[in-house]
Design goal:
Blueprint (H helix, E strand, L loop, with lengths): L1 H8 L5 H21 L11 H4 L7 H17 L15 H11 L1 H10 L3 H21 L7 H24 L9
Helix pairs in contact: 1-2, 4-7, 4-8, 5-7, 5-8, 6-7, 7-8
Length: 175
């Protein structure tokens, strides 16, 4: 199913690339689906729901990560976190707020043996980033603002990568 979904999106992709990406997407779908709920509650696995690229799924987070990598590859500016003070939109503030909560969320998830806490945080961060991405031009003529925004994108990328690593979910730089 993951292979079919990827082929729909990228019909020109080689068989070896599609095979590796399908494996990563399929495993992310299963692992993310199983950890997004409180383990004390019954889990009913739905393969089609878990493989969706839209919604509360591992493939959705992988797609978000691929988007961050794409932005960082496309820009010739260097991320500059020292310029964070010029980030002023509501979405930028929301992302900064979520990023600031990372240590507490990771600690809470670990202390309570509750990966679903981390999963919900990852989903909140991915949702907020995707909303930001659709409303905001990261790459632009104002290179200072682009550097600040790229630093934000890089921070989101790092936290999503770390979260997926903690859940033992492999990621992709391209979908």
């Amino acid at each position: 199913m993951a292979r079919d979904e990827l082929l729909k999106r990228n019909p020109e992709m080689s068989e070896s690339v599609i095979g590796n990406r399908a494996r990563v997407v399929a495993l992310s779908a299963i692992k993310f689906f199983m950890t997004r709920q409180d383990a004390k509650k019954p889990i009913e696995y739905n393969p089609q729901e878990s493989l969706s690229f839209d919604g509360q799924t591992g493939p959705y987070v992988l797609y978000t990560l691929a988007r961050t990598y794409s932005l960082m590859r496309k820009s010739d500016a260097k991320p500059n976190e020292a310029l964070a003070h010029i980030l002023a939109t509501e979405k930028e503030k929301a992302l900064l707020y979520l990023l600031a909560k990372k240590a507490d969320v990771f600690a809470d998830s670990t202390a309570h043996y509750s990966p679903h806490i981390l999963v919900q945080y990852i989903l909140d961060l991915a949702n907020t980033f995707n909303s930001y991405y659709h409303e905001t031009a990261v790459i632009q003529e104002n290179k200072e603002l682009e550097s600040a925004r790229l630093a934000l994108v890089k921070a989101v990328n790092c936290v999503l990568e770390e979260g997926m690593f903690c859940l033992n979910i492999e990621t992709l730089q391209e979908m």
